Amino acid sequence: MRLMLISDIHANLPALEEVFYHLKENFGSVDYILCAGDLVGIGPYPNEVCNIMRKIKNLICVKGEFDQAVTDGNLKGIDPLLAETIKWTSKVITEENMDFLFDLDGYKTIKLGRFNVLLLHGSPDDYLNGEIVKMEPLENLHRYFEKTNADIIVCGQGHVPFLKEYNGRYVINAGSVGQPKDDISKASYVFMDTDNMEISFQRVTYNVTEVLNKMAEENFPETLINNFHII
Asked: Is 208 a member of any domain?
């Protein structure tokens, strides 16, 4: 089974368009696109991103904490600077796209081929706000797999791509499409083929200046614009 794994788009339309183009040009079609949440917030294209995502027929998607905050207005625990982008998103997002975000599940368990897959934004301890990190202790991985009975956990949150293997089971973070935080200002995604266990991390150049100019046009905080790949 051929899969595309993405996460943390954060309303970055140019980055999303480029990763989809890169997938098509380099791998062709896939059976499913798995998205680990945070479609909106931070970036300036929430409607454009949601318009694309909700029309994908083979999409399996969960919500992240920014998606949740846009729908319920609860900004607790979110950096005040980033919270300003959530407030702006809540004002401009269409009713159709608000409904789309609201209807996203917090996590999904899926049978893909011979694998039990758990798709979430955070961690099995806190599917929305938790995080599995690149240097996650082995005892935590053991507990996660025992708790969920998953063969593969696909997560987001950290904006840093990584693969961890534990006793033949896998944790995959595809990194961030819209706001990578690993000192590489390129959109990130994963192509995966479960038939031969190919897991291929991809980085894609996109027009960062276009995004920053749009943020300035929409009067986003200057500090956020100047530190887009740091905050």
From this structure: yes
Give the full edge-to-edge strand order of the sheet including 107-112. Answer: 107-112, 115-120, 152-155, 169-173, 162-166
- pLDDT tens-digit readout, 138-148: 999 999 999 99
Asked if residue 39 belongs to a domain, the reply is yes
Q: Please, what is the average pLDDT of the chain?
A: 96
**Structural domain harbouring 216:** 2-105+174-226
Q: What is the pLDDT of residue 25?
A: 98
Q: Per the domain annotation, does 130 fall within a domain?
A: no
Indicate whether this model's pTM tops 0.90. Answer: yes
Q: How does residue 2 score in pLDDT terms, banded at 50, 70 and 90? A: very high
CATH number at residue 94: 3.60.21.10
